[in-house]
Amino acid sequence: MIGERIKNLREKKGLSITKLADLAGVSKSYLSYIERNMQNNPSLQVMAKIAAPLDSNIEYLLGEDHLPKLQEEEVLDEEWRSLIKNAVDEGMSKGDFQALKDLIRSNKWKEGAPAEGDGANEKKKTSNIIILHIDN
């Protein structure tokens, strides 16, 4: 059932198995095993990685009847819509948004991870420099 739902969502979004594997950060062969029901027990982490680019969630992949329905008006106010529109107008792609989201998630994780060595309960201080290079 999980594999069938993933495959159906992937095909509805027009994604190849290779593209979904890349977006989800899982191997193409492992994703193929899941879709063909040869792997029936993927971890919740893997399922979350796969669900995100499919605009789905773990609950749906596990058998919930309906996909989550989010109304744009409930999630995005006018300021958010304007920021996103400007970013897209300036050439930012869905992949760029995903990379930025992943970077923010990684930074939040790093901030919450204990530092190595003495003072393991103190938060690790990090700084990041982001350099964007966009070819026209």
From TrEMBL:
CDD domains listed in its UniProt record: HTH_XRE
InterPro entries from the UniProt entry: Cro/C1-type_HTH, Lambda_DNA-bd_dom_sf, SinR/SinI_dimer_dom_sf, TransReg_Diox_bact_type
Keyword annotations from UniProtKB, A to Z: DNA-binding
Source taxon at top rank: Bacteria
Keyword Protease (UniProt): no
A GO cellular component entry from the record: cytosol
Chain ranges of the HTH cro/C1-type domain: 6-61
Database matches in Pfam families: HTH_3
GO molecular function: DNA binding; DNA-binding transcription factor activity; protein dimerization activity
Signal peptide limits: none
Keyword RNA-binding carried by entry: no
PANTHER family in the cross-refs: HTH-TYPE TRANSCRIPTIONAL REGULATOR (PTHR46797), HTH-TYPE TRANSCRIPTIONAL REGULATOR SINR (PTHR46797:SF13)
UniProt-recorded name of the protein: Helix-turn-helix domain-containing protein
Lineage: Bacteria, Bacillati, Bacillota, Bacilli, Bacillales
